[in-house]
Design goal:
The longest helix is centred in the middle third of the chain and has 48 residues. Strand 4 and strand 5 form a beta hairpin. The chain has a three-stranded antiparallel sheet, with no helix packed on it. A three-stranded mixed sheet has the order 2-6-3. The chain is elongated, with a radius of gyration of 34 Å. With 464 residues, the chain is mainly alpha-helical. The N and C termini lie far apart (116 Å). The chain contains 17 helices and six strands.
Length: 464
Amino acid sequence: MSSKVSNFSDLIQRVTASCLLHPLAGVSRADDFSTADEDEDYDNRAAAAEEEDEEDFKIHTNWGGGAGDDDEEPPRTMELEILMGQVFDAVSSMKRAYVSLQEAHSPWDPDKMRVSDVAVVAELRRLGLLRERFKRSVGGRGGTWGVGAATLREVVAPYEAAVAELKREVKAQQAEMDNLKEKLKTASLVSGKSKGKSRRRVSCTTQVAVAPAVELFEATMSLVKEASKAFTSLLLSLMRSAHWDIAAAVRSIEAASSTAASFTATSFTGGDSLTNHAKYALESYVNRKIFQGFDHETFYMDGSLSSILHPDQHRTDCFTQYRDMKAMDPAELLGILPSCGFGNFCFKKYLAVVHPKMEESLFGDLEQRRQVLDGHHPRSQFYGEFLGLAKSVWLLHLLAFSLDPPPGHFEASKGADFHSQYMESVVKNNKVGISMVVGFPVSPGFKLGNGSIVKARVYLVPKN
């Protein structure tokens, strides 16, 4: 009896070793996604290894449950090899299809994208069928097959995780594609024969979707103020670290502006500290640069007239873009689409706000500027803070052009009397009995279609 037990244990060990042999051979193939020549070389090496191992790991047992030839390879082992080969082939094909899908984004190739998308989905379905087939096979078999199945699950687990990750990426790309397809479909309807009818349908949708946009506009303007303050504070901190003469720096960056005289003559003579003067002067400079062109649908980056030619459709597109972009991280968005409309806006405004001499003095080089000129978005803290401001202004711009009628844009002028209905002071006025006027505007104001006012922020100085 003890001899029989020993022989049975030895048989189990040999069976397990044989089961492990072939999955491990398959694993080496999983990493082989290169060329047809490498696949052929792998097949030759695998065939030679199988012939060599066949002599050492012959298992004289009946895997099929009935009489069988001891010299033939166990049927279930062959089934396992075939299944693993199909799994690896499917993963390889899906990876190639996904790479093709990514390449279709830049340059944009809709036909190639559709073909790649179909290929990725087909391979995912193929993998799903193989998984179900494997589960059915394992569910109906036990004994030694159970040991091999457990080992197979361990081998396949990393690839299942990779497939899940690819599914998530494909889903994100699919969402982006669906959004673009919807925009293309709507644009085609507007320009087609049913132009009038489609306009009426879009206009009706716009009225429902854009109804809360007035309140959203006011809330988004608050975000612009906070982002503007944050970026200006960082800029002022970097100036101090670089040992700048703050007063001279403010006068220098405003030398070409119409309010330069007000800074040199009045801004630094009030009761507030030089720091407050500089902070608001810098914020005024940044806002004037970044809001320049706000009244045009693309900030004058091109000559588009969609808001005039197709007003209903343009309003719908703007609000759709606002909803799509609101929750997105600007750096991640620009990592995928660096030259989209928002990306070009960031390129243009960064070069306008940050002078080359300013950047070189603050950072010791012009590396960030070179990256921007090359069409890339730097990954620095400074540029990240700038993206936060740029995104908030871009969202405000989208909301403005989604409203009907669009908000009226206004800005207080130097020397104007203070009107609390349209303006708010950035500093408290503690000078009782002293008449105050606008020293310089800090941020613009807007008059909305429902009659409400988003007040312009101003820096007040004593009236001469």
